[in-house]
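Morning!

This is the sequence you dropped in the shared folder:
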Amino acid sequence: SIVNTASKAGAHWQENLDEVRALMALNRDGLDAFVRERNINATPAYCLSKEAVVVLTMACTEALIAKQVRVNSVSPAAVSTGILVEFAAAFGDRMTKNLARVGRPGSPAEIASIIVFLASSNSAWINGQDITIDGGMTAAAMTEKLSLTPSAEIIS
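The structure's back. Tokens below.
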């Protein structure tokens, strides 16, 4: 089993598929020109690289099935590591709001436990998936976007 580490920052790969394809088609020598021509700074570069990890995971799935190898990716949101402060600066109010919704960032151990599960035979039928690990951030944001409110009976 292969478990790639992407990020919640790579969630918009479908919207940026042309850029992801262009990045994935590069050889090492073309990367500097790619970044320069598109004027890509640090935050968009991070997002694009993580989008590419998600797409690469899916793209490798079928070929690896024949070799009896599974491939999945994990996409953690805010994790309590040294880079969290930089993420807060890069992603601003959106990250702050999402953290407030779920109460805290994830821990490295929580992310690692999902990776261990995906690497184990206990996840034998999970293949070609990107698993978002965000404490409910995505669900909360989608609930707000769709104006969904569960009835009091459901929550009780």
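Headline: The beta strands are 2-5, 71-76, 130-133.

More detail when I'm at my desk.
O.
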